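I hope you will forgive my troubling you with a question about protein structure. The matter concerns a single protein, recorded as an amino acid sequence and a row of backbone structure tokens. Please examine both parts with care and let me know of anything in them that strikes you as inconsistent. Here, with my thanks, is the record as I have it:
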Amino acid sequence: MLVEQIMTREVVTLSPDNTLQEALDLSHHHRLRHLPVVQDGLLVGLISDRDLRAAAPSTLEQAESDQILHDIRVEQLMIKDVITAHPLDFVEDAAAQIYKHSVGCLPVVSQGKLTGIVTERDILRNLVEMMGVNAPTSRIEVEVPDKTGMLANISDLLRARRINTSAVMVFPSAKEGYRTIVFRIRTMDPRRFIQDIEAAGYRVVGHPSMMTDGEV
């Protein structure tokens, strides 16, 4: 899935000449945590609600210092070296950028112009959907040798049972020379599928039916 498929296109923005008070008002009115700063359609900065709160006078100082919010312009506080995404980036690559740089959002830019914004919440919602955990499913983990054809072999067992799959993920196994394949399958009773896997010589390592009475 691409960033352009999950980003917000109608972006609330600021001008560099806006005051901090105007930025605070906009942030509160739209309940936004991040406001891109745009000039002539081009992204020139980003300011967050955290930056604005840090710049705002404390309650004790407010009576004397409130004017400062009307005197300081956004360009004096905004971040100018903004981490961005492109509309055609893959969602998982955008997620990696958010994680790597510890940022809460990525303005989406094409040819210098702001075309949208994607937040960590957008990314998380999309990953939940990609992993198939937003609908009733069963999760099965299968340990297989790290060699070609293992995924196809397990998929053949699913096809024989006429069970649809919501998501498939492959992870390194703690056991050397093996991989772990995680299936999200559209059935709440996967016991026969588990029996098929074990009869084929593979080990199911992650499903509630594998727990002992003391673990449940």
